[in-house]
Amino acid sequence: MEIRNKGKKKAFGKRVCDNARSKKPSYKNEKIPSDQNIETLAVAEPKTPLSKSVLKSGRLEGWKLPSQVFRGLSIQELDHFYVYLEHTHQIIRLLDKPENNILFLLTTNTISPDRKIKVLSDWAKSEDGRSLCNRMLKDISCVQKREQLALTVVAWMSYRQLVPDQLDGFDQPITGSYLGDLDAHLDGEPLGNSGIVGLRMGFSLLRVLNSYEGRFRDLINCLGTAFDLETPLLHLWDGLSDQYWSRRIMGQPHESAMEEVSQLQMPNFRRDKTKSRQSAMSVPQPLPNADQEPTSIPGS
């Protein structure tokens, strides 16, 4: 799948989804269940993610979506998303986990954009949405299989597009580099620019994955519609972010990767925990050879 810098493109896997849907029962004449019917199917309170819900069709089972999102989407929209999940899980089985459903919903354009954005943005501002955001930040800090890490990062990027931060319009990083800003956010020090930081980190990770010349083609295709955004102009220190993500997808945790990047001729890159954050003052070295396979952790 081609990643475009500007303009709209068709939703991921449209042909695959259409083919799959043509083999399944039609729901075009089926009415959307009322809130009362939906509530009788839920096994949790409204603000609790659903572990099992069954639509009247009897086919869309095993959902783990926030009930506010679940009720806001039609059967047809959920059905289309279900087909997308089936296809994605066949390609990347490591991501076939119920808790990933909401992450995929955040990162894909398989649902009518206007309706999806309204439903998701309303939910993202809720306590449940903020809780997921905090969980994603915690997960980004930890060692994860590269597919899961990529999904989490891109989902966080998409979430922050739904809930803009107060300084997202500011065109310069707060600490001197966007990687330094990410470090602050993961360290529990919000800087007010999480939207632009998420965007910068998402595109940096995409650059690194693309540098392996097809090694992560399936992963990029699955997450590609999240990048249906204008590519931000490169910042002076974006090379730091690329260095960081090249280490993360090879299995290093956040702290270890940050420590290594901070030694690339830039002793002041990371702040002393007792001092204010300082910007880097030297040019980062090139990325490691892209021919090297990232095989230090399990994952396809």
From TrEMBL:
Residues 256-300 are annotated as: Disordered. It comes from the Eukaryota. This is Uncharacterized protein.
